[in-house]
Amino acid sequence: MTQAVLESTRTAPPFAAARLQAQGKGGGEELGVPPAEEEELPHAGGGSMENRGLGEDVEIPPTEDQLPYSDGVPMESERHFLQMSLLLESLKLAWKERDDFYAGGDMFVYFSLDQTKGRDFRGPDFFVVLDVPRRERKSWVVWQEGKGPDLVLELLSESTAEVDRGEKKEVYEKQLRVPEYYWYDPFTQELAGFYLQGGRYVALEGDGGTGLTSRLLGLQLEVREGLYQGLRAPWLRWATLEGEILPTAEEAAQKAEEAAQKAEETAQKAEETAQKAVERAKLLAEKLRELGVDPDSLGGLAFPGS
Question: Euclidean distance between the first and final Cα of the chain, in Å?
Answer without folding.
Answer: 89
